[in-house]
Design goal:
- The chain has 8 helices and no strands.
- The radius of gyration is 19 Å and the shape is globular.
- The chain has one domain.
- By secondary structure, it is mainly alpha-helical.
- Keywords: Membrane, Transmembrane, Transmembrane helix.
- This is DUF624 domain-containing protein.
- InterPro entries: DUF624.
Length: 210
């Protein structure tokens, strides 16, 4: 009984260290790519490693796997990231413009921007799980991210709630951010995405031709 409890404790400690290590690698590679060029391939590699863990490939060499995927997907991830960045900048500019409006126009714009922001977060959230799980044309990754988010709306809403709750927890305990900031949110979306993929495969791909 004691040996079994100690074994479980050892496994838990191992995963605490392993996930923190992966998060630190993600931050390092993001910075190494000067943020703009490093974020997308580093986040792609982060999701890819998490995907392997979720598929019970727990003994993979973390850094080597991350580094290989980072190099392989650098160009492709950045091309798609450029498009996503443009959308994000447009949304930020719209929020900036919002402060100079008032009355009915401000209320309408606020509602529209909140809806567009939720759609954009869904696009971002599903993009990475689809990117590391399927081999598609560049534009199809974005299309299927939106379709999957709408098709499994209940899963999407749950992941959004969990993401917001996790972000609030990290802001409350900022000391955790360097070790678990990225991986905790990525794990939510990769786990949710993998569950959605399994539902589609059980239905024979009906409803979403991925």
């Amino acid at each position: 009984m004691w040996a079994k409890s100690m074994g479980k404790l050892f496994i838990a400690c191992e995963w605490i260290m392993k996930t923190a290590y992966l998060n630190i690698i993600w931050i390092a590679y993001t910075i190494a790519g000067l943020l703009v060029f490093g974020f997308m391939p580093a986040t792609t590699a982060l999701f890819a490693v998490i995907r392997k863990w979720l598929h019970r490939e727990t003994d993979i060499p973390v850094w080597r796997t991350f580094h290989t995927i980072y190099k392989q997907e650098f160009l492709k991830a950045n091309l798609l990231g450029l498009f996503l960045m443009v959308i994000g900048v447009i949304l930020c500019l719209d929020y900036w413009f919002l402060q100079y409006t008032d009355g009915l126009i401000k209320g309408m714009m606020t509602g529209m921007l909140l809806l567009l922001s939720a759609i954009f977060l869904t696009l971002l959230g599903y993009f990475f799980p689809i990117f590391v799980h399927y081999d598609l044309k560049l534009g199809d990754y974005l299309k299927y991210a939106l379709l999957l988010g709408a098709y499994h709306l209940h899963i999407t809403l749950l992941m959004l709630v969990l993401t917001i709750a996790t972000a609030c927890l990290l802001l409350y305990m900022p000391g955790l951010i360097p070790f678990y900031g990225g991986i905790s949110i990525a794990w939510i979306w990769m786990a949710g995405g993998s569950y959605s993929f399994r539902l589609i495969e059980k239905r024979g791909g009906k409803g979403l031709a991925v």
